[in-house]
Design goal:
about 325 residues; alpha/beta; Rossmann fold; 16 strands
Length: about 325
């Protein structure tokens, strides 16, 4: 039975990864940690939660020993658009947490999952069917930290035998967590606004295609890779994983199948647009499919039906003080 610690559990992925892991491995065997005390509100199943700054190596070591941890999921990161506002903080957080966890994994013989991202690619990367092994020259500090992280994880595996694994995640769409400052966040916001206002102002241009993935597939990829036979893994720390690719017009068209009056307009965010322009239109995930059997469950039509159903229930039952449940912020849900 695995004993798991998740660092950065209060983030977009962590809030849904924790319940998935606890369902598989048992509530008491998955320790959620975050630097923010209020992150504990996301985990109400009685499982362990600990305050932790993942840059604090000594406290992290103590928690690992306290809970007899053998596997760590490193979900600590400042995302792309947020990182551009404070590049040095992004480097400190993203790289500092990873270095600490790599060193502890080496010392304590831990398995370590650290996600990479489509942000690890750049303008000079082939944008269509982006290969597994290709040029990576990202233009954002977030992307720089992801490339550095891929290389460091490979280094610790090759030099010290640390069981490091990771995937290059696309934009993640969640019906639980609110957006967290990423370039692909519009693909979450648009569903809320479609339900509340029947209109949305996109911050990326039409024709800006990006790889996207529904959260259940993201957690599935994470768990399946960590369960995969290590003897079959060639690209351990940077697997392309893909599920769907669309631009703002594409997702709007799908929403209109259910909300015909939905309107889409544009107000371009130059920072996000520049980042998006450097990312792939669609990745080739052949290596993940061949090496550990990756296969997504969700496409755009199926996801749209589920997102609208879940968010309609959420917004209509919101208990915040906005005064209009049908057009609610959704923050208390």
């Amino acid at each position: 039975m695995k004993k798991i610690l998740v660092a950065g559990a209060g983030g977009q992925i962590g809030t849904e990864l924790i319940p998935a892991l606890r369902q598989i491995y048992g509530t008491d065997n998955v320790v959620a940690t975050d630097i923010r005390e209020d992150a504990s509100q996301f985990f109400t199943d009685g499982g362990p939660f600990e305050l932790l700054d993942a840059l604090d190596g000594e406290k992290t070591r103590n928690l690992i020993k306290k809970y007899n941890i053998d596997t760590v999921f490193n979900m600590v990161a400042l995302l792309s658009a947020v990182g551009e506002k404070n590049p040095m903080l992004s480097w400190k957080v993203n790289m500092g947490a990873l270095i600490n966890l790599l060193e502890l994994s080496k010392e304590l013989n831990l398995s370590l999952f650290t996600p990479s991202s489509i942000g690890a690619f750049g303008e000079s990367t082939p944008h269509d069917n982006t290969p597994q092994d290709t040029i990576q020259r990202p233009g954002s500090i977030y992307g720089v930290t992801k490339v550095a992280g891929e290389l460091l994880c490979d280094y610790y595996f090759n030099k010290y035998g640390v069981d490091t694994r990771g995937v290059r995640l696309p934009g993640i769409i969640s019906n639980v967590a609110l957006p967290g400052g990423g370039t692909t966040d519009y693909a979450v916001d648009i569903f809320y606004e479609a339900i509340k206002c029947k209109k949305y102002t996109a911050n990326l241009k039409p024709g800006t295609y990006l790889d996207m993935m529904y959260m259940p597939d993201a957690t599935k990829a994470t768990v399946e890779l960590m369960e995969a036979n290590p003897d079959k893994l060639i690209h351990r720390n940077c697997f392309n994983v893909a599920a769907m690719s669309f631009d703002p017009e594409g997702i709007a068209m799908e929403i209109r199948k259910h909300i015909p009056e939905f309107q889409l307009s544009y107000e371009i965010d130059d920072v996000r647009q520049a980042i998006a322009n450097s990312w792939p239109n669609k990745m080739d995930d052949t290596c993940a499919r061949e090496e550990w059997g990756w296969k997504p469950d969700w496409d755009l039509p199926k996801m749209t039906v589920d997102m609208l159903a879940v968010l309609n229930r959420k917004l209509n039952s919101c208990d915040c003080d906005c005064g209009d449940a049908g057009k609610c912020c959704g923050k208390n849900n």
